[in-house]
Design a protein that fits this description.
Length: about 100
Amino acid sequence: MTIAPISTLINLQAQDILETSLVSQWGEAHKVVLYLVDIEVNHQIFPGIQVAGDELTDEVILGRNFLNMLPLFLDGPHQQAHFVENATNIRRVLQ
């Protein structure tokens, strides 16, 4: 799940859609409000992404609900990320 500070979402006047529970990777649950926001990456706008507003963070964490939409190649050894348009470009990035 994509997570952002609730204060940021309120300042953006993001539309709140639902109150639910978010369970961390350690199994703890706490209540959050989900908001709909548009996220822009590499000059492309992704509308209506669900983002959990978190009172405990000051960071934005891009979750799999958003990252799975991106044509993204993560090159961990070189600490780089590349946007790719198709599989041919992935091979070029690897060379």
